TrEMBL record:
Residues 26-121 form the Clp ATPase C-terminal domain. InterPro entries: ATP-dep_Clp_protease_ClpX, Clp_ATPase_C, P-loop_NTPase. PANTHER family: ATP-DEPENDENT CLP PROTEASE ATP-BINDING SUBUNIT CLPX-LIKE, MITOCHONDRIAL (PTHR48102:SF7), ATP-DEPENDENT CLP PROTEASE ATP-BINDING SUBUNIT CLPX-LIKE, MITOCHONDRIAL-RELATED (PTHR48102). Keywords: ATP-binding, Nucleotide-binding, Zinc. This is ATP-dependent endopeptidase clp ATP-binding subunit clpX. It comes from Borrelia coriaceae ATCC 43381. GO terms for molecular function: ATP binding; ATP hydrolysis activity. One of its GO terms (biological process) is cell division. GO terms for cellular component: HslUV protease complex.
Length: 143
C-alpha cells in the first residue's frame, strides 16, 4: 500500500482497493514501449503536434534509450517521461510556428543527455538527406 501512495496514488483511493498486487519496477525497455507503442503514446502525441506545423518529428533509437534511462535515473518511472520530453522540446516547439522552412526535427541522444544541445532542426534540402542512425518514425511499426 505504501508503494502505491509513494507512486502517487492518493491514500483514499488505495484504501478502496480490495486486492493488493505487487508491481515490479519498470525496466528501460518497458519505458521505451510506453513512449512509443500505445495509440496515444507521448511520442505520438508530440509527433502529431509537430505535424500540425507540417514538421516531421523523429527520434533516434539512442535518444529513446536515453529518455528511458533518464526517467530511471530520476526514479520517476513512466510518469516522468512526459516532463522529460516537455523539457527537451519546449524551445523547439516555441520556435517552429514562426519558422516555415523547418521540415524535420530529429531528437538525438546528445540532445537528451546535454541540455545545451538542442534537437536537430532540418530545413529545405537538408531535410531529405538520409540519416545515418536508426530512427523511430511515427508511421513505422517498429522502434
Amino acid at each position: 500500500m505504501e508503494d502505491l501512495v509513494k507512486f502517487g496514488l492518493i491514500p483514499e483511493f488505495v484504501g478502496r482497493l480490495p486486492v493488493h498486487s505487487y508491481l515490479d519496477k519498470l525496466e528501460k525497455e518497458d519505458l521505451i514501449r510506453i513512449l512509443v507503442e500505445p495509440d496515444n503514446s507521448i511520442v505520438k502525441q508530440y509527433c502529431h503536434m509537430f505535424k500540425m506545423d507540417n514538421v516531421d518529428l523523429l527520434f533516434e533509437r539512442d535518444a529513446l534509450d536515453a529518455i528511458a534511462e533518464e526517467a530511471m535515473l530520476k526514479d520517476t518511472g513512466a510518469r516522468g517521461l512526459r516532463s522529460i520530453l516537455e523539457e527537451l522540446l519546449k524551445d523547439v516547439m516555441f520556435e517552429i510556428p514562426s519558422t516555415k522552412q523547418v521540415k524535420k526535427v530529429i531528437v538525438t541522444k546528445e540532445s537528451v543527455l546535454n541540455s545545451d544541445v538542442e534537437p536537430l532542426i532540418l530545413t529545405g534540402r537538408h531535410a531529405n538527406k538520409p540519416w545515418s542512425k536508426e530512427l523511430y518514425e511515427i508511421n513505422s511499426q517498429s522502434t
